[in-house]
């Protein structure tokens, strides 16, 4: 059994609210939403973050285009796409994920 939270969610060892799934990607609702739409889009294969996945540009492209499609399907075509990398980058779960945030006015800087 993996000790990675998102690997366990992908494996259905931990419950989640599924938004989308295909062979390479799983998307689910964030448990602590920061906006009316807050979906996490993750590769099924474990990568720590975008650095770790940098040799799989195809997968990174799929994650971005799928994130945009999910935003549209959720009724939030104006949205923010975030991936935190490393402790200083605000990463808490060390399995690559994109946050799809929308449904309210997003501000910059996020703080
Ligand atoms: P990050 O800080 O970028 O690593 O984001 C981790 C995200 O995972 C946070 O937005 C958390 O709310 C979310 N999260 C943590 N545990 C769960 C869970 N069991 N199900 C869904 N989302 C989770
Ligand atoms: Zn993992």
Overview of the molecule:
The protein is α+β, with helices and mostly antiparallel strands and 111 residues long. The protein is 21% helix and 23% strand. The protein contains two helices and five strands; from the N terminus they run H-E-E-E-H-E-E. It is globular, with a radius of gyration of 13 Å. The model has no long low-confidence stretch (mean pLDDT 97). It binds adenosine monophosphate (AMP) and zinc ion (ZN). The site of adenosine monophosphate (AMP) has 12 residues, from loops.
Short description:
This protein is of the alpha+beta class. It contains 2 helices and 5 strands, in the order αβββαββ.
Molecular shape: globular
Number of helices: 2
Ligand inventory reads: adenosine monophosphate, zinc ion
CATH class category label: Alpha Beta
CATH fold node name: HIT family, subunit A
- Major β-sheet annotation: 5 strands, antiparallel
- The CA-CA distance between the termini, in Å, is 36 Å
Q: What percentage of residues falls in helices of 4 or more residues?
A: 10-25%
Short descriptors:
binds zinc ion, 5-stranded antiparallel β-sheet, alpha+beta, 111 residues, binds adenosine monophosphate, HIT family, subunit A, 2 helices
């Amino acid at each position: 059994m993996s000790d990675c939270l998102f690997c366990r969610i992908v494996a259905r060892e931990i419950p989640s609210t599924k938004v989308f799934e295909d062979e390479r990607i799983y998307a689910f609702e964030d448990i602590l939403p920061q906006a009316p739409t807050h979906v996490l889009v993750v590769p099924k294969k474990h990568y720590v973050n975008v650095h770790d996945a940098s040799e799989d540009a195809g997968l990174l492209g799929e994650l971005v285009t799928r994130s945009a499609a999910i935003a549209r399907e959720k009724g939030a075509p104006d949205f923010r796409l975030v991936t935190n990398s490393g402790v200083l980058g605000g990463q808490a779960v060390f399995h690559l994920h994109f946050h799809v945030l929308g449904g309210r006015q997003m501000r910059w800087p996020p703080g």
